[in-house]
Write a structure and sequence with these properties.
Its EC number is 2.7.-.-. One of its GO terms (molecular function) is transferase activity. It is an enzyme of class 2 (transferase). This is Sporulation initiation phosphotransferase F. It comes from Aquisphaera giovannonii. The protein has about 130 residues and is of the alpha/beta class. It is built from five helices and five strands; from the N terminus they run βαβαβαβαβα. Helix 2 runs parallel beside helix 3. The protein has one domain: Response regulator (Rossmann fold). Strand 3, helix 3 and strand 4 (about 80-85) form a beta-alpha-beta unit. The chain has a five-stranded parallel β-sheet with strand order 2-1-3-4-5, sandwiched between helices. The longest helix is centred in the last third of the chain and has 16 residues, at about 110-125. About 45% of the residues lie in helices and about 20% in strands. The relative contact order is 0.16.
């Protein structure tokens, strides 16, 4: 929690079922969630709301997850970002690290893994 408010997670995926599944994982854990179906929508949410962490699908229409992360960082500075991709390879891992992504998780991601990684990222970036 930040000043009594729950941490907020931006979940960006062009698949509505994937967005809703992740929301259903994190809201019972006490997180506030924002859902976006595109990089552009994610950028608009970050402009208008405090976002503590981004869960970003790599393959989105128009802007990729990495491109979206880069734009968000230009606007807001470092926000921990976890990239989700069904085709995780060494090239993607290198590109994600160059954009300072916290990590890349292979889709489909398990509930326990995504909760663990998000909690580690929040702890790393926000614990005093």
């Amino acid at each position: 929690m930040v000043s009594g408010q729950p941490y907020s997670i931006l979940i960006t995926d062009d698949d509505p079922a994937a967005r809703e599944t992740l929301r259903d994982v994190f809201e019972p854990e006490g997180y506030r969630t924002f859902l976006a179906e595109s990089g552009e929508e994610a950028i608009d949410i970050v402009k208008d709301h405090q976002v503590h962490l981004a869960l970003m699908d790599m393959h989105l229409p128009r802007l990729s997850g990495l491109e979206t992360i880069a734009i968000v960082r230009q606007m807001k500075g470092i926000i921990p970002a976890i990239l989700l991709s069904a085709d995780r390879d060494d090239n993607l891992l290198r590109r994600a690290l160059s954009e300072n992504a916290f990590c890349v998780l292979a889709k489909p991601v398990s509930k326990s893994v995504v909760i663990y990684v998000v909690s580690k990222a929040i702890q790393k970036y926000y614990s005093n």
